[in-house]
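Give me C-alpha cells for this 702-residue protein.
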Amino acid sequence: MDSHRYIRNVATRLKSGSRRAMRNGRFVKISAGSLVGLLGLAVVANAVTEGAVTDLGLSAVYGQTPWPSLHRDTRNSDFIPFVTPTRTRVKWTALDRKGFIPGAATPFPPSVGVDGSIYITSARGFGFSHMHALDPETGKVRWKTPRWFGFNNPFAFGGDTDLHIIRDDSALDHGAIAGTPTHDADGNVFLADQDQFWSWDSEGNVRWVTDILELGASFPWLSAVIHPTTGYIGGITADGVVMFFNRDDGSLAVPILELPGAAGPACPQGAWALIWAGGEVAFDIRRLVFCVAFGFDVEVANTPAIDPVTGRIFMNAAGATPEEAVLYAIDLVNDVDGPHWEIAWTALAGVGPSGASPTISFDGTQVFTTEGSGRTVSFDTQTGEPVFATAGGEPAFSPTTAPDGTIYAGSGCGLLALNPDGTTQYCVSPQAVAQSLLPELDPFSVTIPDIPGLGLGEITLSSDGVPIAALTSVSEVTPDRIVTGLSLGYRLNGTEPLLGRAIPLPHIDVLVAMDRKTGEVIPESVTIVPDGIEGFSIPSNDGLIALNQNALLHTLCTYVLSVFLPPEYRCPGLPKAGIVGVEAVSFREFSVQQIEIVREYIATVSPELPGGDVQRAFDLVRRGPEQLGAAVDSIDRARKEIKKRNAKRAKNHVLLAQREVDAARDLLDQEPDPSFEDQEEARALLESADTRLANALSELGP
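Here you go.
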C-alpha cells in the first residue's frame, strides 16, 4: 500500500442537494458551522462542529499532509493527530557534510508536500541550491531550486540598493533559510527569500515571483502562512509590514499595514561571526540569520498564528521600545473602503527580544506566547486581556498546545506542562538521559582574552562538569507523546556575551519521546542523531520523523570554543548539519501502537454516547479512520516481522474497523446535532470496530 495514500487534497462540492466535502479522499457530510467557517462568515453554533478544519486538523486551503507548514496548522499548535513510534533509528541523512563540502545548517523544520516529498531550506550561499525536495524513503533529492550565484553585503540588513553586492534574482537566494516551505491544497509550494516571494508547483516549476522590496519591506517574513478564511498567502515582515497575496499570481491581495512598533534590541556585536564558521551558513548571510533568529535588530522574528474559524491573526513583535514585547490581534475587514487590515487590540507581552511564535488554543479562547525572559503568557483572544503568566526562566521556544487544552513549553526546569488556567501540571527535567550516557568531569575555569574586532571583551568560561540535557527544539505534540530534541553535554557558563545565555557544550544529540501524562522520557525512545536538532522534529503518519540539524551549538563549540577547553570537554567530531530521517525500528510494534490508540479513543467515546459530550466524542472519532489507514500501511511494511496469513487477516480486520469508525464519525456530524438514535448507532459501530481491532492485535502477536 502506498504510504502516502492518505495524503490527499481537500475539495468541496455539492452533491444530491446536500453539502458534502471530499475529506482526505472520501465524501462525507460537513456541518453548517464548518462550511460557513471555511467561507469566512459567521459560524453557526451547532452541538457538533468541525471547527473549520479537516479530519487532519488543518484548514482546507492547506495541503492535507502530515506537516504542510512551519508549525503544522494555522494555530501554530505543533500537534499532529498521529502516534509516533517508540523505538526509532536513523534511516538516512541528507545535505550533511561530505568531505570538504560543509553540511547545510537547517534552523527551520522541514515540511511535507502533497506528493509526500520532504522540503527543507538552507543557506550555503554562492553556487548552492537553497531548497530541496527529498524522497522520504531514501533522503535522495527529487528536485531542488537552481544554484544561486550572488553575494550580499554581510553588514547591511537590506534596502533595495545595498542588500546585494552581486545580485542574482533568477534563483532562490540563501535568505530562504529563514523559513519552512508552505504547501496549499493544490500542491503548490510557497517560500520567501531575502527580497522575493516564490511559488512553485509540486514538480519544481516556478509559478510566479513577487519582489517584496518594491512593496516596502527591508526583509521578508519567516515562513509563509495561508489565511484560512480567504486563502491569501503571505505573512508579516521582519520590519512589521503585513503582506498577503493572491495564491494564483502573487499579486497583492490586501493593502499593506505597517505595525507601529520599533526594531528589537541591537544584535550582539561580532557574535554572529563565530557560528557556522565551517560554511554551514554562508558568511554573507550569517549576521542576518543569527540576529533574526533571536529577535535582534528586527520588529518581528516569528510566524503569526491565525484562528482557523475567525481568521484573526496574532503576532509577536517589538513594541514602542526595543526592550518591550507586544502581541497584536489583527483582523481582515471588508467594508465600504474595501478589504484592509485593522489592529483589533495590542497587549504588552513582556520583555524582548523573542523569536517565539504565538499559539492559539484549540477552543479559540486563548493565545499563548513566550517572551524574552522565558515567561509563557496567555491572553484572551477576543479582548487581549491577560489570562495568566508563568514565572520567568531561561529563554524558551514557542509554546505548543494539545486539543485537551494542555500547553507545553520549555523552561529552566525542563518540559513545562500547563493547564488552560496557567496552573502547572508538571515540570520535568530530562537530566537523567545525560547522566546515563555521559561521565561527570572535573570542573574547570579559563579566561579568554578580548578578540580584536568582536567587541566582546575578556570572557571567563567555566563548567562544573555535571552532565546536563537541554531541550533544543520546539516540542511536537502527538496523541500520547511529546517528541523533542535534547543536547547532552556540559553547561558552559560565560557565553552570555555571545548568545545572551549560558549554553550546553553538545557531546551527544538525541531525539526522545516523553509521556504526555507525566513528562518523563520514555527510555527506549532515546535515539542518537548526528548533530544538534535545535529547531523541530517533524513526525509523519508512516513511522518517519524528519529532523532539521541546525548545528549552531556544535559549530560554535568545535570551531571557536574547543581551542580554549580542556580536552575532555571538547565537542567530538566535525559538525554534520543537514537533515536526518528517523524511522520505526519495528513496524509490527508501530502498527500495534497505531491500533491501540484508536481503541483508546473508542473506550473514551463510548461512555459519552448517547447524551454526553458529543463534541468531544466527535473530535476523537474523526481521528480514527486516518490513523487506521496508516496502521494498514505499517502492517504492509512489517511483512518480514509478521506471517503473511496473519498480516492479511489483521489488515482485513483493520479495514473493516476503519469503515465502521468512519460511519460513526458521519453519524455524529449531523445538522443541527446528532439524534439519540444516531448516537446509539454510532456507539454500536464503534464497539463493533473495537472488537475487530482486538482481533487484529491478536493476529499481530504480543
